[in-house]
Amino acid sequence: MSFVEYSEFIQEGDVAIIFLGHDSMMPVKVQQGAQTQTRYGVIRHSKDLIGQRFGTKVTCSKGGWVYVLHPTPELWTLNLPHRTQILYTTDIANITMMLELKPGSVVCESGTGSGSLSHAILRTIAPTGHLHTVEFHQQRSEKAAEEFREHRVGHLVTVRNQDVCKEGFGVTGVADAVFLDIPSPWEAIQHAKNAMKKHGGRVCSFSPCIEQVQKTCEALADHGFEEISTLEVLLRVHDVRSITLPLPDFGSARPLETPTPVSSNNSVLCKTTTPPREMAGHTGYLTFATKPRM
Amino acid sequence: MLRKRRLARGWLPSQKTRFLMAENEDDDSQHRVKEGDYVVLKRGDIYKAVQVLKKKKTIFEKQWFILDNAVGELYGTTFEVVTGTLQPRKPKHIESSADAKEAGTDNRHILDDGKSQKLTRDDIETLKEQGLKGQEIVQQLIENSTTFRDKTEFAQEKYIKKKKKKYENSVMVLRPSCRILAMMYHGREPGKICHLRYDTLALMLTLGNIHAGSKVLVFETCAGLVLGAVMERMGGYGSVVQMYPGGGPVRAGVESFGFPSHFHETLHDFPICHVNALLAGTLDTEAKDVNPVAGQANGDVSEAPAPEKAEGKEGSPNAEEESMETNTSTASPGEREERDKLREIRGQEKKVKMEEKRKKLAAAAALLQGRNADGLVIASRFHPCPVVLGLIKFLAPSRPFVVYSQYKEPLIECYTKLREQGGAVGLRLTDSWIRHYQVLPNRTHPMLLMSGGGGYLLSGTTVATETHAAKIGPMSREEPPAKKLKLTEATEG
């Protein structure tokens, strides 16, 4: 298993995603002799996981069963331990496309945070690209580096523990794309520019507040960035339901002649979708820009 | 001191500078437009994909010009259209906002009587004919506007921007990318891509976990945009199988991506009319004349790429042959011999072509036969239900799939069927909402217009079913080995 390459069978040291049912999952580190408790009972790694095919059903000790899934960046985003706020798949998808990431891209990112976006970037730029990720929180940067190694993408990433606003990305003239998710992105625009290739590239800044966006856009324009564009994306989930709609009874036109028939068929079954009662209404504004060739 | 020593050694600095120069030249040559390149023209938010061919007239935004002068220039260069040719624009002219400005405080004195502009349509046309640049025309418009000075500073800015957009004739030449092409198709010809919005396409690629080294099935009727997007994300590693309906695969959009030729070696195609046979194990790709249907269907492909055309044209090659025969009867014996020879050669060529087609079909069938594909992406005008239920069988367990439809109801049906049938978990029916913003000091707000909808997605992950395990047994023997060799080498090296 690796986050950039599928394997058929589960091996010692892999990360596997235990699918417990509707929107309920948990990640496990597969280790010889280890056990994982689930609400359906115990999963014994040596017997139930190692050597099994990803995607197969595993019966737990209480007789319930779960599916064991191969990790993907998207499943990881839903299961990772939160050390910070994280980016979710809808934003990640748009960031990936709008930054024009593809195999071979060199990307700079700050901050690393919990690594939600980092994993998605690594998946897309492998096997020939590289990610330079900068995190000013020492413990978080160490934890991230450890995770990347465990997920077998360590060779594609350099983690630096420094403040991007003061020290930049630690590389110059190499990046095709830069991503900023920091409190004051406008202070890092010059560093972003320095990190990028001479012939130009794309930059993205993620900010929850419009005031941050305002300052960032000004800084981008001041530094000669072009095609500055701010947008917001949200995902709407549609829950598929079967609903029964009762039909009203307007009575008979000749009520006295016929006694009201007790119709058993006075409702209609219909397949439809309903919106969830609550949904994420705001994550952050995404500001994109192009660095022209200087 | 150091400098002196270097000079004494002589060769060091010069060699170094030469090396640097060479490196720079090399660096730039990759970023220059070459003849035959597929490029994207851009003006404002409007894009158009074209191929750079010498002396070929291109029409963009009601202007025609030839792209010859773009050859040798760097990607990202802005050109002015001057009498049907492109002229590189001089580096950034400074906006003449210095000599401003009187401005009103509000619009209480501005009347909309249609008389504020003193220049008439004809006047402006004359200015244009005199060869005035876009900017100069805008300046004329401002000078001849009676209300410009009463407008607020913000309104003046807006006025200039609006007029500039109308009279500017600059064109930017860009390298194509999934982002640009997705926005181009959505803006220009949404009908051709089933109204698939760019953010929805972005989600498809991410939810489908499309990445280098995997084996992905694509079924689309989006002019090749989705296929091209998948290929871009695979970067020439792994394999893509285009499952196509009708007479032949449609790939016009893939061309516009301008992929290097080795990308096309990773692209396979398989007609969906053979899916049932392949699943039943009755598809024979070994002997060429055992499967005349396959031969015919594929023979048509080379002549007509579009499925509708392929079906419509079925009779036409025969008609041509007939007319040729009537001609030969009046020809001399020598000519006739030559004709016969030609026909024989043509026949042989056709045979070779058929053989190639058969080999291609066999290769695609071999990729599918293992039923171990890593991803499935569907975006078509067909009812998604039979498509998903048919093609999901080719996926390995624990692999993502994603289905796009412009409409929600068919995806509700898909969702229900997949739930009943099993073999998939984490099913989600979604659509995405996107809003663009105007960001200006003290004037930040959402754009007044937004897209009303970008289509719907059904996504999920496959899991093993009891039947799956049974089917895998006999199938796996025929399975071609080592599909990921390339990636492993690259990552380990």
Automatic annotation (TrEMBL), chain A:
GO terms for biological process: methylation; tRNA processing. Its EC number is 2.1.1.220. The keyword S-adenosyl-L-methionine applies. The keyword Methyltransferase applies. S-adenosyl-L-methionine binds at S114, G115, S116, L117, E135, D163, D181. One of its GO terms (cellular component) is nucleus. It is an enzyme of class 2 (transferase). It comes from the Eukaryota. Keywords: Acetylation, Methyltransferase, Nucleus, S-adenosyl-L-methionine, Transferase, tRNA processing. GO terms for molecular function: tRNA (adenine(58)-N1)-methyltransferase activity. Residues 64-291 form the tRNA (adenine(58)-N(1))-methyltransferase catalytic subunit TRM61 C-terminal domain. It catalyses: an adenosine in mRNA + S-adenosyl-L-methionine = an N(1)-methyladenosine in mRNA + S-adenosyl-L-homocysteine + H(+); adenosine(58) in tRNA + S-adenosyl-L-methionine = N(1)-methyladenosine(58) in tRNA + S-adenosyl-L-homocysteine + H(+). It is found in: Nucleus. Heterotetramer; composed of two copies of TRMT6 and two copies of TRMT61A. Belongs to the class I-like SAM-binding methyltransferase superfamily. TRM61 family. Catalytic subunit of tRNA (adenine-N(1)-)-methyltransferase, which catalyzes the formation of N(1)-methyladenine at position 58 (m1A58) in initiator methionyl-tRNA. Catalytic subunit of mRNA N(1)-methyltransferase complex, which mediates methylation of adenosine residues at the N(1) position of a small subset of mRNAs: N(1) methylation takes place in tRNA T-loop-like structures of mRNAs and is only present at low stoichiometries. This is tRNA (adenine(58)-N(1))-methyltransferase catalytic subunit TRMT61A. It comes from Umbra pygmaea.
TrEMBL record, chain B:
Residues 93-112, 334-353, 476-493 have a biased composition (Basic and acidic residues). Keywords: Nucleus, tRNA processing. Pfam families: Gcd10p. Its main location: nucleus. Residues 90-112, 292-353, 473-493 are annotated as: Disordered. It is found in: Nucleus. GO terms for cellular component: nucleus; tRNA (m1A) methyltransferase complex. The keyword tRNA processing applies. Heterotetramer. Substrate-binding subunit of tRNA (adenine-N1-)-methyltransferase, which catalyzes the formation of N1-methyladenine at position 58 (m1A58) in initiator methionyl-tRNA. This is tRNA (adenine(58)-N(1))-methyltransferase non-catalytic subunit TRM6. It comes from Umbra pygmaea (Eastern mudminnow).
